[in-house]
Input
Amino acid sequence: MNDKRRIIIDCDPGHDDAVAIMLAARNPKIELLGITTVNGNQTLEKVTRNALNVCQYLNIDVPICKGLAGPIVRTAPPVEERVHGDSGLDGPVFDPLTKELDPRHAVDFIIETVMGSDKPVTLVPTGPLSNVAMAMRKEPRILENIDEIVLMGGAYQHGNVTPAAEFNIYADAEAAHVVFSCGVPVVMMGLDLTRQALCYPEVVERMSHVKTKAGKLFVDLMNFFCMTQKRTFGWAGGPLHDPTTVAYLIEPSCIETKEMFTEIDITGGQSHGRTNCDFFNLMTDKEKNSKVAVKLDVEKFWDIVEENLKLYEEL
Ligand code: RIB
Ligand code: CA
Output
């Protein structure tokens, strides 16, 4: 039995989700068991097509299962067309799609895979948490075989979809409440961390010298993503949110975390969807349910990105 970290990526590709998949699929420390998709950056149909296109182009042969088309309780927020475009993955041009979906629903895939694994599985959600929460509710026994949930979401400072809330959490706050209160340790890559992973033009230029299919896809993705991030938020470099989850799995030392109690605001008010992180441990009666990322070793992060882009077929 190998000692690879078994993971499932639950995502809404999304340019940054696509890079997270690229980092995980060929890394020798990781066994990517499957990819599940959820409504978020774009509609479920579009993000699922995007996941299929990325995996077809990069010859990533793992099950891809479609999940929830919206949040569990409320209506979905608008898709992030401003950032990811009409397709959800504007920029790259893919060959006609022939790769097929696995027929299982994402929730059932997560349950079957976790229950069927002879060692613990790590869940890596990089979109709204609807599929993950539903799997926990449908089959609570999966909690016994999940070692960690390493997710992109939340912020202990400023949000990006409201002043208080980050998109993935806000999009299905009730689902996030289920996940953060399930008892399995959550490693939270919030905006406080991911806004340190700014993909400046010089980073794109550096990766353009990686003459593999993944190197080319990274450049095609980032040329669009960085343009929309600058246009929308004024960022000189787009924050590459989702890959920080996989970078943490590959090299935990590249990210400093702080243990604390985190709860989700599901009251429906101005701060709905906020991750209320007890940064100064004020609520001493509450169990610390999360490791919240606070500092990124930026140089090491981009080295990890470059090293993993090199693991794919040459152009
Ligand atoms: O707020 C950033 C998150 O929302 C990222 O995961 C991005 O892909 C979108 O899903
Ligand atoms: Ca995402």
Summary: The chain has one domain: 5-309. The pocket of calcium ion (ligand 2) is lined by residues 11-12, 14, 16-17, 40-41, 126-127, 242 (CB under 6 Å). The longest helix spans residues 213-233. The CA atoms of residues 128 and 171 lie 6 Å apart.
